[in-house]
Amino acid sequence: MPVLILLPPSEGKSAPVRGAALDLDSLSLPLLTETRQRMLEALVDLCRTDPNHAASVLGLSRTQSDLVTRNAGLLEAPTARADRIYTGVLYDALGFGDLSTAAKRRAATRVAVTSSLFGLVRPGDRIPAYRLSGDATVPGVGQVSAAWRDTMGPAMGEALGGGLLVDLRSTMYAGFWRPPAELADRVATVRVLHEKDGRRQVVSHFNKATKGRIVRALLEDGADPRTPEELAGALERLGWTVEPAAAGRKGTQLDVVVAEL
Q1: Which of 92, 148, 201, 212 is the least crowded, having the fewest Cβ atoms under 10 Å away?
Q2: Digit-coded pLDDT (tens) for 69-102
Q3: What is the pTM of this model?
Q4: 243/212 Cα distance (integer angstroms)
Q5: Cα angle, residue 52 at apex, residues 46 and 50 outer, rounded to 5°
Q6: Backbone angles phi, psi at 222, to 5 degrees
Q7: Which residues contact residue 189 at a Cβ distance below 8 angstroms, ignoring those fewer than 6 apart?
Q8: Would you tell me how many other CB atoms lie within 10 Å of the CB of residue 257?
Q9: How big, in percent rounded to 5, are the helix, strand and coil portions of the chain?
Q10: Residue range 20-35: mean pLDDT, rounded
């Protein structure tokens, strides 16, 4: 595998109205199955037995009680492909649904989404819509990010193979697993800077939308970068202004500078 593009999840999700129930054994990266089972059982039990505490744990308001109910029914809830479950600015800009056939085929092996409930999922993995943030602490398993750290490393090794990691995760989900120093020469992170009137700043909407467009362009183009430098070159060829930072123990940061959406 030449490249693994690692995405953050979306807070909002599209809930399927029909489909088979969740089958953990059918998900990719079976090294994560045991932790997935523990996380799922703990979340469902919390939402079934103490909805008020569940709402507090999940950071929900009184008007969002339906999300607690949704979590309580995760074992029986209909599932759909992960690339149809995750929504929001990044996923709208990526547009999994109308990728070309070749790009969809590449996405199946080159894209993974970090998930508080499932650890990592591939676009074709069938999952239910759920609510669980990466900074939550769930009774029975503890802090979500800490629960994933022990098993995420081996699963990431399997998913990455000898390829380049393009890490597009947000800060919260980067805490689930941090690439070891020995992988630094094949780790690229991307920061999007909005430039206006000579000033640059990170703006959430520009950041998410541009990352979605970058993933889409790479999948459609079929570029096979093996190093952060080759990724920077591919992005420049595809029309972006890219400023690579010096390589460090955590990899190479690529600043993508945009003036408008």
Answers
A1: 201
A2: 999 999 999 999 999 999 999 999 999 999 999 9
A3: 0.94
A4: 19
A5: 35
A6: 80, 15
A7: 167, 168, 250, 251, 252, 253, 254
A8: 15
A9: 45, 20, 35
A10: 97
